[in-house]
Structure formats: structure tokens, C-alpha cells
Amino acid sequence: ATPTAIMVGTGLGAKRGVLFKNAMGLETSARTQTVVMDKTGTLTKGEPEVTDVVTATDVTNEQLQRLVAAVERESEHPLAEAIVRNAEASGLATERAEGFENVPGHGAIARVSGHRVVVGNRRLAEREGIDLAELAGKRDEMAATGRTVVIAAVDGRAAGLIGIADAPRETSAAAVKELHALGVEVVMLTGDNQATAERIAEQLGIDTVIAEVLPGDKAAKVAELQASGRKVAMVGDGVNDAPALAQADLGIAIGAGTDVAIETADLVLMRSDPLDVPTALRIGRGTLRKMR
Ligand code: ADP
Ligand code: MG
What we know:
Belongs to the cation transport ATPase (P-type) (TC 3.A.3) family. Type IB subfamily. The protein is an alpha/beta fold.
């Protein structure tokens, strides 16, 4: 690796908002065969918005939103923020929660007005022994359109569903296309549910989806991909993604992401544009060619 080629490559990247933090990053980007992309905040804008509120027969929309908003007000999860914002807009975020418990990768639990309220994904509902029969049809319908479905249970019974949409970034599909054109495999890695993830992957032309991954397991999934001998880059934005960014041969952080992700990455995309992933790989390849 000649210092001149590295300087040129690094400079070219910097001009385009692609910041290589080390020379190794340039070389590895040239050799990348698989790009793993986090869904929320990386392929999508990370600006979730409530689109649907569905309740069980004996629950009103207002009751559901009051209970759920009280729990989610204690959470820092982006989905929780979307739910609280929506409830606030209707003046339904006035209740207080007690005994709040965050369940990473699952959801949250707290007591509100004497009720035990559980808010989260299917795995959490199953863990809590919630019977979802009445709401299963609606849940599947929402997930099939790419919505993230948040399940709410009150005192051990399914009370309702909140559908949340997070639009793909404008250039995500184009980025996947360019990566494929470079002969690079693209994988989506997410904690979200399988059906939701598959729908969004389909919209973006991604053929491999690894969904319902717990925050602590993302790095292990990257390691599994590396076990086949492939050079793997991981693109992420969240605190959740940091171990996977460290595990990958090349860690790529979205510039708008969390500090931890940016600190851990080998490469930072200052414009938070997925199209800069293929750009980085091309700069790496160009640099490597000059180094030979
Ligand atoms: P990701 O950001 O990749 O979706 P997380 O591990 O943060 O991953 O969350 C995984 C899933 O757990 C979310 O998609 C959601 O279904 C559920 N979840 C986590 N925290 C909450 C919360 N506070 N409220 C509702 N659902 C939650
Ligand atoms: Mg994310």
C-alpha cells in the first residue's frame, strides 16, 4: 500500500463525504463481498410515524393510547417516541407510569392507573403468555405492508396494535442496485419482525433478510456471514449496531447515527446517504488498483 495511493483515496472520499478513518478501511472496502445493512435508520429514514391504531373489542382507541403512551414516555426507543408524539397530538399522553422496565429488543413494561401494561413485539407478547388470536389477522395485514407492529397488552390480555411506518431513504433502492452491479451481496439485518422486514427488503431489491435479531446478537450474525470466508461490511446507525460494526471487516456508520456507531466505524458516511456505500467501495477498488 503506497502512502500516496492511500492519501489520494482518502482525499477523494473526504470530498464526497466518505470519511475513511484508517488506511485499512480503504483496502477492506476494495475487498468487500457482502454488505450487511441495518434496517431502521440506515435503509429507512429512522423517522417512524404511527399510521394505525387497532383495538381489541372491549378497549377504546383512547384507552389504548393513554395506557401505551404512559409506558412509552419512559422509553427512549424511536418507536416509543413516535407513539408518544401521536398520543400527544390527541391530548392522550397525560397518564404516568410506575415501575417501568425496558426489555431490550422486545419492548417495555410498566404499571399505569393500576394496570400492568406490556408494549412491544410478538416475542415479548409470547413471553408474557398473551393470546393474540383476536388481533392476529390485523397484525399480519399491517406487517404485510411493511409496518412495524407494536402489540399492547393490559393485565395479561391483548388490548391493541399500533402500526408504525418508517419510509425507506430515497436512495436505498439505488444503493442496493449499485452494490449488486459491483457484484456485492446485500443483506438486511434487523430486530424488527420477519414479515415487516421482508416487505421492505422486497421494495429495495434486497434478497437476504435476517430479522428478529436481538441487539446482542447482531455481531454474531455478522460473524456467521464471515465464517464462509467472505469479506463483510456492516452499515449501521444505532448503539445496537456498534458491536456488529466492530465485528465486520469494515464497519460503516451513517453520519446522522449515534456517537457510539460513529466511533466504532472504520468509515463514516457524512451525508447519511446509502448511495455512498457503493461509492466507498469504488474508491477502495480504485485505490487498490493503484497500489498494485
Ligand atoms: P431495531 O431498531 O433493529 O428494530 P431493537 O432491538 O431496538 O431493533 O428493537 C427490536 C424490536 O423490539 C422493535 O422492532 C420493536 O418491535 C420492539 N421494541 C423494542 N423497544 C420497544 C418499545 N419501547 N416499544 C415498542 N416496541 C419495542
Ligand atoms: Mg438502526
